[in-house]
Design a protein that fits this description.
heterodimer, A: mainly alpha, MetI-like fold, 14 helices, about 75% helix, B: mainly alpha, 11 helices
Chain lengths: ~300, ~270
């Protein structure tokens, strides 16, 4: 019995240690190394066979140079700040677009709800890349949106949307919408209708009942949905590189270019470490919110 | 909340679903466009599908992708189910907090970080990049999704059934095979499907961990669409969207029938 239990615990445990935790250790180590013209392109390399002396000299060669570099070159500062800005704004936009959908779903008749639910989930299963790509044809200069606007006479010249930050916002709202709708829908589904009736009986208008009762009671869904959009949006790579322009600065893209184009592994690793540090706070807050929710439910 | 299904709600649902589906609908329609100019309609044609069938590079990439997705989702399902079992059933053990942290963290980790860290690991241990490294990478993040799906099912299931089987002389393995597994099977299957689509879809982690001989379809699509919209990619997207749609609808029908049958069985058991 005990052997089996150990086996059950240790197989996934060792897998995650080896392929999740240890890789982070390596990222941290390379972030402290220097770039070199070698394969792999960084120095120093640990050589355990050369004895204790090589180990001590190895550690003495590690330094915070790359992190200092990140603070000196304002490209990185601007990239982190602009990622934060884009992630915050697009989370708010997703909330504004997603809340009415979740609300409408929760108010729909019960026999419709599974179908609506399926309609929200289906895009999530469809390739992310394809969903982002589908907007390239819509937003480009001679794209479908501009054709439509020119045809209706709303604009006289095609709008420039593709390769701007606006296109990035649209892309994030579009691709992450299910993550916002589903938690809010789940929270609204649990809402007790009689509370709204009570509020109205006590003299609330419909709209103030909505703001005073419905919104506060769906708070947990709003928080969960916002984190589920904000966290991945912050490190997003595909959307800014397909829909954004050369001026769109996002940290996921910077990391990618640092690694694949500049081949500066130590700096790319340092960028990753800082991104992770920024994400730790929202991730912990998100976990807390989930835990609180579970305790309330059970 | 069935009261007052108003015009406002109908409008917001219509607008919302139009927003979700119109871009893909346009893409599907224009994949049947005769012209190479993707934004000008020049008549119905299926020629881009024909060209796709003769594009060796895409076919090779598709084959690599399916192989990777199959192996990584299968491995992820086994490991993820084990991990779910550990989290729900194993009580306390040394390092439990770290374990559950490692299960949940990959769900929120930016893909660029996961990809970079795995690549650096593979290089550090001298593993050549290829199909194997992508499978290892995909298994690692997909197993976390599987374990979340399976553990929610495990947590809601009546443990006394398993204990009864053990009391009646089943070995723990038999009890798992003939009691637990059939009950959690829907979750295990949907976990596998989730892992499969996640792997099929992944661009960022695959880009970091693939080698020159193991290009996956998303990598191929990404490098093609960077140059702009093309009718072949529209056709390819349409094929992928249809496969997923049919798959999701089939899966939901199967699970609906399974739930119905389970309910009917329970009714019967109550009557006898």
């Amino acid at each position: 019995m005990n052997y089996r239990r150990l086996f059950l615990i240790w197989v996934p445990y060792i897998w995650l240690l080896a392929l999740f935790l240890i890789p982070f250790g390596i990222v941290l180590k390379i972030a402290l190394s220097d770039i070199a013209l070698a394969i792999p392109p960084y120095t120093p390399k640990l050589d355990l066979s050369a004895g204790w002396e090589s180990i001590t000299s190895y550690f003495s060669q590690l330094d915070l140079e790359n992190f200092i570099f990140l603070t000196e070159d304002d490209l990185y500062w601007r990239a982190y700040l602009s990622s934060l800005k884009i992630a915050v704004y697009s989370t708010i936009a997703t909330l504004i677009v997603g809340y009415p959908i979740a609300y409408g779903m929760a108010k729909a008749s019960p026999e419709w709800r599974p179908t609506l639910m399926m309609l929200v989930i289906l895009p999530f299963w469809t390739s992310f890349l394809i969903r982002v790509y589908s907007w390239m044809g819509i937003l480009s200069q001679e794209g479908y949106l501009n054709q439509f606007l020119l045809w209706t006479g709303v604009v006289s010249e095609p709008l420039v949307i593709l390769n701007t930050n606006l296109a990035v916002y649209i892309g994030i709202v579009y691709t992450y919408l299910p993550f916002m709708v589903l938690p809010i829908y789940a929270a609204l589904g649990k809402l007790d209708e009689s509370l709204l009736e009570a509020a109205e009986d006590l003299g609330c208008s419909k709209s103030s009942a909505f703001w005073l009762v419905t919104i506060p009671l769906s708070k947990s869904g709003i928080i969960a949905g916002s984190f589920l959009v904000f966290i991945p949006a912050l490190g997003e790579f595909v959307i800014p590189s397909l829909l954004g322009g050369s001026k769109t600065l996002m940290i996921g893209k910077v990391l990618w270019e640092e690694f694949f184009s500049n081949r500066d592994w130590p700096v790319a690793s340092a960028v990753a470490v800082v991104l992770l540090l920024i994400l730790v706070i929202p991730i912990i807050l998100f976990q807390r919110n989930e835990q609180k929710q579970r305790e309330q439910d059970g | 909340m069935t009261r007052r299904f108003s015009w406002f709600n109908a409008t917001s649902l219509t607008l919302g679903f139009t927003f979700l589906y119109l871009p893909m609908l346009i893409l599907i329609i224009y994949s049947f466009n005769e012209s190479r100019l993707v934004t000008v309609w020049a008549g119905f044609s299926t020629k881009w599908y024909g060209e796709l069938l003769h594009n060796e590079a895409f076919l090779d990439a598709a084959w690599v992708t399916v192989k990777v997705a199959f192996w990584s989702s299968t491995l992820a399902t086994i490991l993820g189910t084990m991990a779910a079992y550990v989290i729900v059933r194993s009580g306390r053990f040394v390092g439990r907090t770290l374990f559950s942290g490692m299960i949940y963290a990959p769900l929120v980790m930016p893909e660029v970080i996961t990809g970079l860290s795995l690549l650096l690991l593979f290089i550090a241990i001298g593993l050549d990049r290829g199909i194997l490294t992508i499978v290892l990478a995909h298994t690692t993040f997909a197993m976390c999704y599987v374990s979340v799906v399976v553990s929610s099912r495990l947590a809601s299931f009546d443990r006394s059934l398993e204990e009864a089987a053990l009391d009646l002389g089943c070995t723990p393995f038999d009890a798992f095979k003939s009691v637990t597994l059939p009950i959690i099977a829907p979750a295990v299957i949907s976990g596998w499907l989730l892992a499969f689509t996640l792997s099929l879809d992944d661009l960022v982690i695959a880009s970091f961990t693939s080698g020159p001989s193991s290009t996956t379809l998303p990598i191929k699509i990404f490098s093609a669409v960077r140059l702009g919209v093309s009718p072949e990619i529209n056709a390819l997207s349409t094929i992928m969207i249809s496969i997923v749609t049919v798959g999701v609808i089939l899966a939901s029908l199967v699970s609906k029938r399974a739930i119905k049958r389970q309910k009917a069985d329970e009714q019967k058991a109550l009557q006898t």
